[in-house]
Amino acid sequence: MRFRNLRHGIRTAGGLFAALLLLTLPLDKAAAHSGHGAVHLDHPLGKRELAWKPGREIARVLSLNFDFHAGDTVISWSEPARLERIEGRDCVVGAHVLFDVNDAFMFDGDETVELELTFAKPRGGFILSYDHAVAPVASEHLFDAAPDTLWHTERLRLERARFANRKYAGTDFSIAGLGSQLDRGGGANDEIALCGLRITRAGDAAERAPAGRLELLVADGDGRPVAARVGIYRADGWAPLAGDSTLPVQRYYELARDLPMLSVPRGWSDKGRYAFFIQGSYAADLPAGEYEIFVMKGPEYRMSRAKISVAPGEAVRREITLERWRDMPAEGWYSGDDHIHVSRPTDAENAAISAYMQAEDIHVANLLEMGNLAGSAFPQYAFGEAGHHHAGDHVLVSGQESPRTSHRGHSIGLNGREFYWFERDYFIYDRTADALHADGGLWGYAHISTNAFNVGYGIALDVPRGKVDFLEILQLGLMDTGYLYDMLNLGFPIVPSAGSDYPYLDLPGTERVYVKSGSRDLPASWFEGLKSSRSFVANWPVLDIAVNGDSDAVEYELERGDRVKIVARAAVNPDFDRIARLELVVQGEVAARAESADGAEELVLEHELAVDRSLWLAVRAAGHDGGLAHSTPIFLYVDGDRNFANWRKVPELARKYIALLRDFGASEPKLAEEWERASVNDLVLPRWQDAKAELDRAIEDAIAIYEGLIARAEGSAAR
Fold it and tell me: The whole model's pTM is what?
């Protein structure tokens, strides 16, 4: 057998929710609120409990269709796991199966566990993930068995197994088929058939040290208790389980206290990867020993580190003050996350949800009800002002990630007055975009940074027809400006956005949008500012741009020959990163650059240009340790011409998107690409056919717009 460690990227009250999701509304019109059918039956990840009993050491066996926090990405491209009888043996067959170890057998350990796994008709191999003592870990195991072998047994040693129920749905380890990885889509070889499982403890468990007690108080520079993210680690990264005084954080439809961190600022622990949230204070027993405490509250506060020594039977008290690195609201900037999935079936959840959004210092948290062809998940009790919850200058706002298909992209609607869901016209995204715009809301496309779900089809179709306000270009520590620059160079005014996609990807606020709103009238000023004022997307850095000394406007009226002086600054909290590069982008090309080989807390770039035509410009920055930022475009209009297209590039770009639309028109959705196939399997093709005639007309309309741009560009060149 051969295996490969897959740990990467990680340096980094279910019953009520399920019951509410099963409520239904009429399906032939837009739904005014949640409940018009439940995505994945009663769980966003399609959770199913399987009646497979391999031994009394296993309490539960579950099937889920997704796991991004296991040390590797796992996606079930096929149907949910099921039970099958193979040659007289009971087997569980599926792409992703999770196991909850009986707590009476082992809970919160730190020892070697041995697994014996018997597979039927082994093909390729499998991925094993388990709750490791320090950080989520996964490994790939390749079968040496011949393809025609009926039975094959693997014996594995899981070093430093924790088994503290920290995986999804309170599980401890999981097994997935090789084809279930994110980059191996299409359903090829993604299922395993597991027909036997034995688990034994190797007997090397270390004796737990007697307990002491920690009392922790966290305040801001004015002495006020504040919510924050906390990690407590031994030198090897081991962390005690979070105590009952932490904030219970909603993760899908369960409450969790210990959460794995995917992206880790440079000042955080080198090894510790589990963190928890507190509301100003924390008290818990923990094994005696030496620890280091890490406390953070988003990128505007300095990170705190404190070493403590806990003695048996004694209490240690620490008071930690979080000092500001930068007070962005005082400068008129307010942060927001455009992509968070948290259920709010009633307003009773508001205070708890707001607490951990405040811990990450997110001023506008957009909580997206998530739809697909079958219905929606992550319900919101109200939309519009009725769904706003204010806690000082932090606000929760209802939004939607819908329409959402794997064949033409996932869309996001912000600041709508209702949740819009059109059953028979689900593939006609126009319905939702137009309804949101009528509400004064914004609409755009998600997951641009990973170019996921054929999002290019949606962008090619909807941007030229004036449907799209923003593109979510920053997520998962990745930034992709390709579509944004193409559309700006074609003359279409869209802006960048960013979001964490919690809980699917990282913690809330890992990526965020800063908007210069000019007032504290949140969230209205934030949404208006995102559409028409200064903003920038970032994980950690902050940006500032002055055009001829002005740092507020996004549009400037100039005359041919005018000279424009641009001064750009990028800065970053030194506990998070160091700025390596700052670039000025003009019409999609880098016009000037400032760099620092060792990294700097701040970089400044100055550049002067003479304008002879209308154009757009922007600023972007990158850090040494993964920091990324990008400004909204700024438009320079010359002699009253408000068309800022890059006419030299227009013909090539327009033809590129015409070809993409022709491909879209000739295409058909593939069921194997749908993440939620179990709930939409019977709906995808019928709804595609329902929409096809109208989609074809929209495609031709968009192509006509591109062709008009080509004619104008070539006609101008001929003159």
Answer: 0.93
